[in-house]
Amino acid sequence: MADPGPQPDFSRQLGNPRLIEAALALADNRLHDAEPLLRQHLKEDPFDAAAIRMLAELAGRIGRFKDAENLLRRAVEIAPNFVAARSNLALVLYRQNRVAEALEELEHVSAIDPENLSSANLKAAAFGRIGEYEEALSLYRMVLDRFDGHPRIWLSYGHVLKTVGQAEESIAAYRRAIALAPHFGEAWWSLANMKTLRFTDEDLAQMDAGVAAADISDDDRLHLHFALGKATEDRREAERAFGHYAAGNAIRARQLGYEAQSTSQMVAAMRQTFTPEFYAARQGWGCAAADPVFILGLPRAGSTLIEQILSSHSQIEGTMELPDLPAIAGQLGPTQNWPELLATLTADDVRALGESYVERTRIVRKTDRPFFIDKLPNNWAYVGLIQLILPNARIIDARRHPMACCFSNFKQHFARGQSFTYGLRDIGLYYRDYVALMAHFDQVLPGRIARVFHEDMVDDSDGEIRRLLDALGLPFEDACLRFWENDRAVRTASSEQVRRPIFRDGMDQWTQFAPWLGELEAALDPVLADYPAVPEI
Length: 537
Prior knowledge:
The protein contains 28 helices and five strands. It is mainly α. Among the domains are: 1-115, Alpha Horseshoe (Serine Threonine Protein Phosphatase 5, Tetratricopeptide repeat), CATH 1.25.40.10; 260-401 and 445-504, P-loop containing nucleotide triphosphate hydrolases (Rossmann fold, 3-Layer(aba) Sandwich), CATH 3.40.50.300.
């Protein structure tokens, strides 16, 4: 191992009762106790890099990543070879989707401590985030060769294997994680999320035992419930499956505390701001780049299929669900206020935002194709922003039958970002808000959004693909009809399904659960009765 060089003087902490108490509070997640102790100490000793790192850890735990970053940069300025602080800084940058900067910090860590396995693990995750999957797999293999007893690393390794289409190897990695930690709920759910895998009786017995255990975490329990929901649904045990889905969703809903009213207020603010007059006054603004193709809507609406079809075209590169547009909106202000703040920007400000998006996404582009896809479903909430800062970008609204789409969301546990999916009423109201905003932009920006109904794509693939390419201004190519032959990496829950020809399996799966979906049906009214018609406002 290389000499890590000078490190902070931890002896100051060992003899300081206040810091010992702060460390214990952090360990117990008593952040309200730890923060005043750390701040008082740093008033007296502002150059204690180790204490600065502790305060940064506290900030990171509550999502104040910018504060954590600033503190960690101060720590490494004081102690440039402080491995723990540099590793934490890399993690904070990664969580802000500043992957290139995170990798730069991780290179510093590797230079100081080449044997640092946690750094190698984070570097592998960062490579996966930007689509450098071979580098990610190589690093995971290196880590597992040296330390193969960590179930979470096997889980992460399995995720990348799934992304690149190595299904059997992915399943083996997930099963290895389970062998190491039999009640590891996320690994069981990852197996269920393969969609094409069927659980054995032994699997079900092991998962049932896990759910019944008194000493597992809420996260393990909710993941096990979702996995058992999938396993029992596959066996046509609808009532039992719904019970598991409902139990898993209830745990996650308590954790997240989503409020449907906040989405409705956001949509109302956007409809008030983004009017024909708003865009007329800003004609010619924005970045002229025409290469982004946004596929948006709700998750589980067929967007991955559309992406796979379009990325089979010689002029379109598929990437992944990119977080950059929400990040740009977040820079403007809180969710409820950014549309209003957008209205105060100058033409130069608006152009700079569009250029920022193009620059931020450059890291995930691996080809010289003229167009690339951003398929983050949540971008439906940012159509007004897209139209202003990237007026030449293409926009595709992927839509699926409300009951089928919403129930598919209810039974899908998402790693992050879809907090509305854990209650039937919440999902229904969210779908209504989404439809209302899309209908608004159909009136404000006629013809700007190309809409694809999943059922039409399944029933008439040839015709729908030709229509969609025509709407994008691109010539038809036969490869788009043979999209399953495209061996590109796919990161979403539908990754295994889009590696097969279009099939009708699952189109009406929700109907077996109809006796328990009254709350969803009530929330969806009136958009349910009108589907697939686009409602008037």
